[in-house]
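User: Run a structure prediction on this.
Assistant: Running it now.
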Amino acid sequence: MIVGVPREIKNNEFRVGLTPSAAAELVGRGHKVLVEDGAGVGSGLQNNEYNSAGAQISNAEEIFAQSDLIVKEKEPQSIERKRLRPGQVLFTYLHLAPDEDQTRELLDSGATCIAYETVTSPSGGLPLLTPMSEVAGRLAPQVGARSLEKSQGGRGVLLGGVPGVRAADVVILGGGVSGTHAATIALGMGANVTVVDRSIDVLRRIESQFRGEVRTIFSTRDAVSSLVKEADMVIGTVLIPGATAPKLITRGMLRLMRPGAVIVDVAIDQGGCCETSRPTTHEDPTYVVDGIVHYCVANMPGAVSRTSTFALSNATFPFTLELADKGWKKALSENKHLRDGLNIHAGKLTCKPVAEAQGIKFSTAESCLEAA
């Protein structure tokens, strides 16, 4: 099989879909690997490292034209979607629910599109979303602390305070992977941390993990409204796999918040959990609505590209290898958890939450496999 690794072209996206060691493993199994010139530079990986691994350096046009399997980090941009073709397999993050243009163009391409974020594990987790959730969660208090500085439009509050001056109040919406890691860093920076979730089991885990140092609150609309009103920073990490994120913070709640408070919307890839959230870039990461600073960068882990590339490659590569060795039909037929990642095949939408969000007809992955 020919495996192609194009250079990421999303704004300030420096990650790469395969590391040289992963490329070497594929080549060692008889596959051909094409890597776009300079694709790994942003992660500190040079062309000669890929050459030494047996990969060939190419350009984007040749990669999309020749490859059977395209492996990326981020969702394909419009120019990339137009290069996809029927029979080709795309393996990357998609986050389709809030992005109708991408859904439509991927359906039109006729390609088979497998999304990292909906691949499952035997335990019911999301193994390919987890590493980037960990990174984004750990980054959130860091970027939020910077945004709280007065020069950045924030309240002028130091996250950890100083002796005699109260530390910042940080509210984290969602106690999953991102939320837990955000709590770890925020607590380590000295903030007063509250985690909000609708699962009592999650709240018990947070209580136990942090030995009572993190306050836990059951999520209701009234609870969220009361908490964000007093918060210096709100970190939104809520997730419904494959679906649009629920809007937990309304425009009305914003008007009750302290001027200069910060919202870090980690859920922005799935549409964001605040009604006033919209995707931003590392180049221009924040904007202000009703006096509240919004940080809504849609590819947060790209800021720490080397760490993120290796963390994600460690998780995705076993699945990449399975797709390359077996072909997509056999791989998905034999592996239910990889099959859960199928979002689009030959013009059919196979992810139910996306179909519900966009009002598009849904086909099961199993029916697509039978037809293929």
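The first helix runs from residue 20 to 28.
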